[in-house]
Amino acid sequence: MMFAVSMTFIDQTIVAIAAPDIVRELDLSSSGMQWVVNAYLLALAAFFALGGRLADLHGPRRVVVTGTLVFVVSSVLCGCVPAGEAAQTWLIVFRATQGLGAALLFPAALAVVVAVFPVERRGRALALFFGVSGALTALGPLLGGWLTGWTWRAVFWVNVPVALVALALTAAAHIADRPRAGTLDVRGAALIAAGMGLGVLGFQQSWSWGWDHAATWVCIVGGLALLAGFVRYERGLRHPLIDLRVFRDKAFSADVAVLFFAMLAFVPVFFFASVYAQVSLSASPNQAALYLLYFFVGFAIASQWGGRILDRQGPRPALRLGAAVGAVGFALWAARLTHLSMHDQWPYAALAGAGIGFILAPASTDAVNRAIGASYGEVTGITQTVRNYAASVGLAVFGTVLTHVTTDKVVDTLESRGVPAEVAEGVARDISESVTGSGDARPPSGSDAAATAMREAMDAVRLDFAEANQWVFYGMAIALGLAFLCALRHPGGRVTQSTGPEGEPGTRPAR
Description:
Elements: H1 2-26, H2 30-58, H3 60-79, H4 87-116, H5 119-148, H6 154-157, H7 159-173, H8 186-204, H9 206-209, H10 214-235, H11 250-266, H12 268-279, H13 285-313, H14 315-336, H15 346-369, H16 376-416, H17 421-438, H18 449-456, H19 458-488, E1 495-499, E2 505-509
Antiparallel strand pairs: 1-2
Helix pairs in contact: 1-2, 1-4, 1-5, 1-7, 1-12, 2-3, 2-4, 2-8, 2-16, 2-17, 3-4, 3-7, 4-16, 5-13, 5-15, 8-10, 8-16, 11-15, 11-16, 11-19, 12-13, 12-19, 13-14, 13-15, 14-15, 14-19, 15-16, 16-17, 16-19
């Protein structure tokens, strides 16, 4: 199962490294490239609840195989995108179907792992699962840097051999399918997918439309209204997509809240740190991958430690420690961004990664342990929906902040060098959209005054971009601070095996 889900983790980061080459070859717009990244995460968030429910209804092995096939076929099609006007739409559509495949695969795989281990050993087992799988996310930038040197299309095709091995191992494992009684709530699945999609669209397009544009708020408020309608609709069903009774458990609600705020930083940091390295530090894709590796060293070590804390003391100490360490790490990292030295930043990047590592496995494991009636697939669907929705919102909001601040700072830089205000505004907007969309900060060509001023100001622009990234990384520190406040509300306590509804195995807090 770790091998199967490795594709989904790697794909969250590998595309960010290849983004500049994809933009240049396919002539994508900057917002289009952001949607190539965001479509995958949005589909994950939209369909995780569906994947978890299908795993419960039809058995996890069948859903793991289905999800793997959907994922790898979509990967091949992403790599085969034709050049031309249809390229952007093609890539976004099949990135979304990749996300659908991952949404089917991951909760089913995690349900298999959870079913194998008893509660008292589950913390360490899932710490290994999340630690190894999360560490494989670090392989994404490394693979991306190496494969992009050959062709950016290989970052999608690399999933084919991984999928074949995963399918072979799944067959060899002889996983038993244990379907549960119930029906699939198709209307609920449509409501939650539409609600999250519409909300993230509003956040994503806020830069293009503006925060004062009606369409921005129609999408955001409309998405929230659909999600509220989903909650109301689910309460009246006998076999809902999500059994909302699980939120009556204060510990489960605290776990989900901590995961939400932590994930506002976890996945977005890959994209923004990679772009920062390539723009402000003038790093190659391979060097940008090594820059992200510092983060994962801290993450991998802390995730194992967090699992042991969970088994011995329950989730609360790990969640509090992780949120505090993460907030401090991101804040210190942000303060060092303007030094423009990769090697000066590694302790703070590692500290930020350690904070996320302490949180991820304990919060996810404790939430799954509190499943109603051993519906592990369904509860995993809830936690992963929250995680990936938060990642999509984080990308959209932090992307908006980055483009606004970058534009303002570049305008000031150009005007200080004698470029007229109206020209500086247009050039600054082009530059900010370019670097935030693709990580490309090459000096502009041409002999006009604006191009000449830009070539002379490139060092200042790189510093401007670093200063703009400080806003993003301080925002991530604030998100971890909010996670800490949520962790303070966790009631604590470990979970032991008990009997759930209808005589099925369940869990209860230990006294």
